[in-house]
Write the structure tokens for this entry.
Amino acid sequence: DAKTTQPPSMDCAEGRAANLPCNHSTISGNEYVYWYRQIHSQGPQYIIHGLKNNETNEMASLIITEDRKSSTLILPHATLRDTAVYYCIVRVGAAGNKLTFGGGTRVLVKP
Amino acid sequence: DGGITQSPKYLFRKEGQNVTLSCEQNLNHDAMYWYRQDPGQGLRLIYYSQIVNDFQKGDIAEGYSVSREKKESFPLTVTSAQKNPTAFYLCASSIAGGSGANVLTFGAGSRLTVL
């Protein structure tokens, strides 16, 4: 599995866009990039995933660089409820996977 | 609404007792998972099951047991052999194949405390 590197923490201002980076320089051609977040004392929540094209849904946008070695999760208008630990995970899209949630970026949205 | 239900939300156990955590899903997902989370740490996989009557050990299966007799249910038993069972336990489910196999839906968790 490709290893991911995320900053341990970051702050952002309420109402502004939050840009969360993730490096995955050893990613393989058939590996997807997944993002989850975990709000304190809750189960993780799936946000978005992508293979090579940029993706957008109601929660966020995912920008993957052309060489696929890094990606950025964008929360367009951060709210206080977006304060959470954000996990970037790279995995092949297939059965039998064991997703690993380690590290992540602790995001604090400030008023 | 479809989702995953874990019970109980909080559980206290005396040392030496077995305890079973319930996990039920109505998402028609084939795959189910159990994770453990310790304070300030990431999630560690205990067991997972891709189909009824089949399951595999994760990274920290010692001291735990599971069953998968029904598609909807994946109970976890924390046995007395688990040396440090106090933790937050999370159940999840997903479809079994394709990129969606990594799109997990999680329950709200069960917090186990050993007295």
